């Protein structure tokens, strides 16, 4: 606005220059309102109205419908719609069209003030150049905002995906993701005639850990066990928290002896380790191992491994059991 005030004054129209400077009061008012979050919609309306009245005055003073300011009326809907309100932008479109119609009719029937600008072609050059630059700036800002919105959407989707598939406490796969992976492994095993085994792991006497040391220490123990087992699992295995202090290890392309051997290494590693920090209790695991039988539902192998786990519990804990046969 100060730029165009100077241009109009230089081209011999002090009236248009004064209008440009007066419009700055509306811009200042909108900036003041924008500092208060609850008044941001009022700030947008004030800014759009200030720009609209400025442009309508310039159209009135400098050529009517033939004025270079006519194209600038599209700025009002752009300002209004920039706040995310399509309806508000459409209302300003309607207001601009009606205003142009009113100026045209008034010019035809009554007549407008005489144009004082000495060089209208130069005014058109300056005005149209600035308008093109403004549109370019608006498009760049729009694309930037669009890219930021897409980036935030991608982050939100990734967060939702993590929440849907990972356990908050341990960072392992959660029950839903474990069952999804297990079903996918079952389909692969049956399609290519590959072995598939499952280990169900349970921390022994975990309730006593919570009751004696508190739930915060219990959480540390859960994370420690999760990290210890995860370090021994292969990259092709899927290890996750099945619920409470119970974990599930899905071993694709692994027969029962191989799964049992890995389960024993896991049991020994946990028994010989301790969660970091003073006063952390030593814990042990009971593990049940089962092999999937082709043609049976996937829940069946979990039930078999669960029964083997309870056998290990009933026979003294800190053991691996496979179909009821002792391994440790």
Can you walk through the features of this model?
With 328 residues, the protein is an alpha+beta fold. The protein folds into 2 domains: 2-160, no CATH class; 175-326, Alpha-Beta Plaits. It has helices at residues 2-10, 14-34, 40-61, 75-81, 86-109, 120-165, 175-192, 206-213, 215-232, 256-271, 298-314, and strands spanning 196-203, 238-243, 246-252, 285-291, 320-322, 325-326. The protein has a 6-stranded mixed β-sheet, sandwiched between helices. Strand 4 (285-291), helix 11 and strand 5 (320-322) form a beta-alpha-beta unit. Helix 3 packs antiparallel against helix 4 (75-81) and helix 4 (75-81) packs antiparallel against helix 5 (86-109). It starts with a helix and ends with a strand. The model is unreliable at 324-328 (pLDDT under 50). It holds the Pfam family GGDEF.
Strand proportion: 5-15%
Mean pLDDT: 88
Poorly predicted ranges (pLDDT <50, ≥5 residues)?
324-328
Task: Give helix % range.
Answer: 55-70%
Biggest sheet details: 6 strands, mixed
Number of strands: 6
For the record, the count of structural domains works out to 2
Taken in chain order, the helices and strands follow as: HHHHHHHEHHEEHEHEE
Compute the gyration radius: what is it? 37 Å
Protein structure class:
alpha+beta
GO molecular function, one term: diguanylate cyclase activity
EC number: 2.7.7.65
Keywords: Membrane, Transmembrane, Transmembrane helix
GO biological process, one term: negative regulation of bacterial-type flagellum-dependent cell motility
């Amino acid at each position: 606005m100060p730029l165009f005030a100077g241009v109009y004054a230089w081209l011999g129209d002090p009236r248009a220059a004064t209008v440009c400077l007066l419009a700055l009061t509306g811009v200042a008012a909108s900036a003041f309102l924008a500092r208060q979050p609850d008044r941001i919609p009022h700030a947008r309306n004030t800014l759009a109205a200030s720009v609209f009245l400025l442009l309508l005055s310039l159209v009135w003073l400098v050529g009517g419908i033939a004025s270079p300011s006519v194209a600038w009326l599209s700025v009002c809907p752009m300002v209004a719609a920039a706040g995310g309100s399509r309806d508000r932008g459409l209302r300003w479109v309607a207001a601009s069209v009606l205003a142009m119609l009113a100026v045209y009719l008034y010019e035809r029937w009554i007549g407008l003030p005489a144009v004082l600008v000495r060089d209208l072609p130069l005014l058109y050059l300056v005005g149209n150049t600035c308008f093109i630059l403004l549109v370019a700036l608006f498009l760049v800002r729009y694309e930037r905002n669009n890219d930021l919105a897409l980036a935030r959407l991608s982050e939100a989707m990734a967060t939702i995906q993590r929440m849907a598939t990972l356990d908050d406490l341990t960072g392992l796969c959660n029950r839903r993701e474990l069952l999804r992976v297990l079903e996918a492994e079952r389909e692969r095993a049956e399609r290519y005639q590959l072995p598939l085994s499952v280990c169900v792991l349970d921390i022994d006497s975990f309730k006593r850990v919570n009751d004696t040391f508190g739930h915060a220490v219990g959480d540390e123990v859960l994370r420690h066990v999760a990290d210890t087992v995860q370090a021994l699992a292969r990259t092709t295995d899927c290890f996750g928290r099945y619920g409470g202090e119970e974990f599930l290890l899905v071993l694709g392309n692994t027969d029962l002896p191989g799964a049992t051997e890995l389960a024993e290494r896991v049991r020994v590693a946990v028994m010989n380790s301790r969660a970091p920090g003073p006063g952390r209790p030593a814990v042990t695991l009971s593990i049940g191992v089962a092999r999937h039988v082709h043609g049976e539902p996937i829940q069946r192998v979990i039930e078999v491994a669960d029964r083997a786990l309870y056998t290990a519990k009933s026979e003294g804990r800190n053991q691996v059991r496979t179909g009821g046969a002792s391994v440790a």
